[in-house]
Amino acid sequence: MEQRGVGAAERERVLETLERIGYVNDERVARTRAEQLASRGSGDALIRDDLERRGLGTDAVASALEALEPERTRVARIVERRGRSVKTARYLASRGFGEDAVHALVASEE
Length: 110
What we know:
The chain is mostly helical and 110 residues long. It folds into two domains: 1-68, Arc Repressor Mutant, subunit A, CATH 1.10.10.10; 70-110. The protein contains seven helices and no strands. It has helices at 8-20, 26-39, 44-53, 58-67, 71-82, 86-94, 99-109. The protein starts with 7 loop residues before the first helix and ends with a helix.
């Protein structure tokens, strides 16, 4: 931005103003993105990775994950749609669902 004539102090002042009036809000961005990914069948690990790669802070990421319905609930919905199988377990693992959630799928089959 300095090459466009905007100095660091000015840039910082503008960002602070945007945050104060609610235009820039990392928690809102993290929550919205987490909800999008969860609705597409992503697990917490994949969601966490996505949010962190976007540069969102640890607190915003943790808050967004806490706001989601539990992984086990999301797993149950996916299993209902795809069926209970090893293929589904592999799918869940590849989508970033935790070992506990995938184990719950296998344990409930026994």
